[in-house]
Design goal:
Four copies of one chain form a homotetramer. The first copy, chain A, is α/β, with parallel strands linked by helices. Chain A contains twelve helices and 18 strands. In chain A, strand 13, helix 8 and strand 14 form a beta-alpha-beta unit. In chain A, helix 2 runs antiparallel to helix 3, helix 4 packs across helix 5 and helix 7 crosses helix 8. The longest helix of chain A has 23 residues. At the A-D interface, strand 1, strand 2, helix 3, strand 11 and helix 7 of A face strand 3, strand 4, helix 8, helix 9 and helix 11 of D.
């Protein structure tokens, strides 16, 4: 059944599918959206909406993180971004987004070149800002302010800096720790360096850990055995342009299989799956859940929220990489902004599905005949390669 | 033979095909268009042209509905749209289409933003108009005016409101009742609510019922067993952007199989299949029939008719959904309008196939060697792109 | 091995491939272009270049037909187009192409609408010109003028009018008769009409007949058994937009199989295969031959010849259909024109392959290691669906 | 396992995959970029970066070739281009690139036509310059100047002129000889001409030979048996538009299989594989290595280097072919130029991956868990779209 082709003599490749290859087959029963329960929880924390924000400064103003929580979702703070490096977040963001104006006339070569150039200027600003020293006191102060608001606090650290930064952010109030890179492995191997023993490290923490991104059964199993509460599949915008990674419908289904096997192996330890998708298309939220995810981490889809830091611009942390920025920088692309509440729960006036993301997801689940995510993960699928 | 792939470990998906994946293989004999009979009938009603209009106010002026009938097709009235809510349909439509002008220069960002904004304004107008109370007397009066013209009267109600509205529209003269939502199930399940027992309901009506949209064998079988005269496969524009639904070539063929089995089960009760396609491409009319449909419901393809209410604009009812509008709104997209007679029967001066839809269908059937739909449903198919 | 999929329950479709899905695998030996022999022949007529022109008035000025012959190809005259209907071909063509100017600024909506409108005006002119009575004396006179030039004269008639027109055009000097419609069957069936018995008809003529277009083994076999000298696979521009027909790589290979079987059945009667492709891409010339064709009929690729009637415009006869024009009308699309000699044999200054079509074909054959078409038809293929 | 389909009756084709169909599956271990070793070597020559420049005058100024060597790569000089024909390379290049200005407003038809016309003028200039006699003294002098810089000198000759030019360029200092055409065979067959006996010829030379392009197992095996040190798979820009050639993921894997078998046959003679890709996408560098290549030859990706001769323009030698130019001419397409060091090794400010090509490759290898190319060639692959 698993589908391998020989792409050349003696060289096999597995056929893999992305989320937009997949459609959902409704069952015999439709349900009412009102009866749909999209609740998910990690440890003692419960969330009404299965939407997480990608840990990028382009989204994560304190207001945004707090509002995400109030709207039932989970906003994730990047501990290694601007929060701990810039006295004024507003000024820092303004410096990034002030580099470019979306041109009036895109067919003028001069305007296109200027627009292209402005994006590299934005990257340069990001690189410069990220090169500032990390002030852990400032970071801690900002995290604790969010904590004071009463919403669940989630903070992301990179695998490289997890050992150093986790104590800081946990002390400041982080209740969920995301150890998240474009790719996380059970063991990061570096010659001469001391690898992070993830199992030992996770075991030493007082807060649940969600780690990723991973792309396959084997890596996911390793994270689960290391004791994480959740596994992140995918790597947001970064996955789409590096040639590395498994298309997400396949990757999520593989990780869901790893979870089932781990559940059996441990006689009942259930690990959550978060799909970190890079999408403009709200239909992928449903297909990600249908393939096995419990919640979906999104980025650009939330950039039109008024509370988002970027004011209609978007980038992910790897765009600030000092030598090899990736993932694109979208400066001032979203002209009209809406309250995050409207983005997540409507009401929408956008007939193309860019608003009321959670409402749309509930409708899709209801139309397919399901009232909770666990059941919805059994919905029948069809595949067709998207052109 | 049925084709399943494992998209991830332990997760299967069925390969499915859309109408534009399919081409028709001509037989050894070509026929003359003149000899082609595209007649189809529901109960005692016979139609020369296998074309139905999607039940949207963007098409359904009274003139349009009457002309559809005169031209051998069937225009479907939306009982829950503007007909029962607005004293002047012309004014209401003008309010929608007046929100936007197709911009002169699409490459100006300002014009693009204004155009985008105008579409959300159009949605807001639709939402406001659809929020008006439904005046069933006004609705009934308008339906009876169409009835007076002598054409067959078909009216659509939603599954949610069928019980309440069906008696009204039937009393007003509806001869065919369409119970049509984006997705209709045999049983709509809502906690605390009382589900519509479709079988009982259909049995209680004096008029034939055509119900849908459905996407698979199982749901279609349920509708057939509920006693409907026809099943609608697909959901027009709504099917294309929600991630729910089976690509239509597969869905239609599955429903045609359900019909064959139901025919056997009932020793001869024949149920009609209507494919509700969202297409700009007249070739999909023929492929929909070739896959097993008896008639095709179209929307945007008819928006260029002079009799259409929207005057070159197009939307479907779900674009007026109060919290989650879907399916797109195309304001003033068709500059040139033609009499509906020309749109359906030519003569055409459009070498890209946008006019003379029925004539084109007859030619295709004749070229493939068939003179009626029943035989044409056996035409050999090829598919591409192959999965 | 033949590849069928079940697109829906109980409904099969064959996987089929188009010419641009196919690539050619070179052999161990490359050859010199100079050693490549692309000669093909029908009956006693030999042609150096395996290129025929589609029988459209957009190409076929007398100068163009004569030059095609002088350059080793074969120009085909449409007996049912303007040659027998218009006293001045130049004036008639000017009336068609004078309807439109390619707009300066395609992003202005006004210009786009005007351009669209101009194309329907062009169709209307074509329809009006084609509605003029056919003056067979005028047609005969023009054909005999071409005959006087010494080149081989090929004239196309439709299946419908073959019985009436064939004697006229043969008497006027046609040495090859093309019986060509979008689709030709062995037996055209019309209620009340008398079908053309192709076998009897072909047998009664003194000139070789090339007939088509066909799309499969069965239809091709019938034409062969009717005694044709050549079979046309495909239908030019018409095949691409009607949903009828088999993608050409598959269709050509099927017809080549029919030829092999017919060769066996008749102990040696060899029928030629002409592929009527609608392409802008010269690489499809080679792939058509590689799939089994002996020669390729092209249209738009030749429209940039200075000798072509349309002066850079292009359409095919079905664009003049009185009720259902198809196949597109491309008015003044090719700004720069080149002598037909340069289009066919170079030298080229176009690095995208639009000139030196025959030279390019010879190079491709040589690079693959073949020096004649018969051997080249064995070249190994790879397939990959084009996105 | 090898995957053949019957595209038509009795006609098979092999399913083949291109580099962008392929994604890489990371292993359980990620590595540090710093630990990645991309070294490769031919004979006694070692290169830190597995990047070669395509032998085109659009790149190969003497400064560019020298800087390629200094940056750890290998720049290849075309012995049959402008180096031996033009007293001033700068003037010659300026003549080519002076033919066109990238238009300010691409939507103006006049500007588009002028731009198109300018490209044919550029081809005409290239054709004229390439028609000048080859001054082997001038060529030798320029080669020896590069040699004086201390970098490894690689010079390309065509198969046709290899016998005549190889002694000249070797005497002038070429340390590696590239015998490279769009397609190289073990034996070029020409009627009346004397074919180059590659084995004898290669054996007679004092320098290692790298030859290609080839597309399959058989041709690669022949080159290996002729004694080459390296085989080139693919043909740069030329492969994409001629319809000849095997998609590169398949071709590279096939040639890697040929290498394994040849290694066995010779009990240990290892032949290098260079993939000559035409890509804008740096992710194909990694996938080419993953499919079996040791190094990648690129062209357009390097055109933004300040040292490149073309100053932001790009073409390959076949664009100067006297009768059949191919492969495109891109005049002044890259507005912003960067030092070659930045293009290859960063730091980058381009979040879409156009800079720091080697750094990006190292990161990809590290993320997949590999620290050298030999191991990386075992990375698991997925394919999509699946045929």
């Amino acid at each position: 059944m698993r589908d391998y082709v020989e792409i050349g003599i003696g060289r096999e490749a597995r056929r893999a599918y992305s989320l937009d290859d997949v459609s959902l087959v409704p069952t015999r029963r439709t349900r009412s959206s009102k009866d749909v329960d999209t609740t998910w929880h990690v440890d003692a924390y419960t969330f009404d909406s299965p939407i997480l924000s990608h840990p990028t400064d382009a989204l994560a103003s304190p207001e945004f993180i707090i509002e995400m929580g109030k709207q039932g979702g989970l906003g994730v703070i990047d501990a290694e971004g601007l929060w701990g490096r810039c006295a004024s977040l507003e000024d820092a963001i303004a410096e990034v987004t002030g580099t470019a104006q979306y041109p009036e006339e895109m067919n003028s070569r001069k305007a296109i070149l200027e627009f292209e150039a402005s994006k590299t200027r934005a990257v340069e600003v990001l690189q410069r800002l990220h090169a500032k020293p990390l002030d852990t006191d400032l970071l801690a102060e900002r995290i604790s302010q969010v904590r004071d608001s009463g919403v669940t606090v989630a903070v992301r650290v990179s695998p490289q800096n997890a050992r150093e930064l986790a104590p800081v952010v946990i002390a400041a109030g982080a209740e969920l720790l995301f150890i998240q890179g474009n790719l996380v492995s059970a063991e990061h191997v570096q010659q001469g360096g001391e690898p992070l023993n993830l199992k030992e490290f996770v075991g030493s923490l007082e807060v649940p850990v969600i780690a990723g991104g991973v792309f396959d059964y084997s890596m996911a199993t390793h994270l689960m055995r290391a004791g994480v509460a959740g596994v992140i599949v995918g790597a947001g915008e970064a996955a789409s342009d590096s040639g590395v990674g498994v298309p997400l419908a396949t990757a999520i289904a593989d990780v869901a299989a790893a979870r089932r096997d781990y559940l059996d192996e441990t006689e009942g330890r259930f690990v959550h799956i978060v799909a970190d998708v890079a999408t403009y298309d709200d239909s992928e939220l449903a297909t990600a859940l249908a393939c096995g995810a419990d919640a979906v981490m999104v980025g650009r889809l939330l950039a039109k929220a008024q509370e988002a830091a970027g004011g209609g611009s978007y980038w992910e942390p790897q765009a600030a990489h000092p030598r090899h920025p990736r993932g694109g920088v979208y400066v001032n692309f979203a002209e009209t902004q809406y309250p995050l509440e409207v983005v997540l729960h409507g009401p929408s006036n956008d007939p193309w599905g860019g608003l009321n993301l959670v409402g749309g997801l509930r409708r899709t689940m209801a139309k397919c005949g399901y009232t909770n995510v666990k059941e919805f993960q059994k919905v029948q699928l069809t595949v067709r390669p998207s052109l």
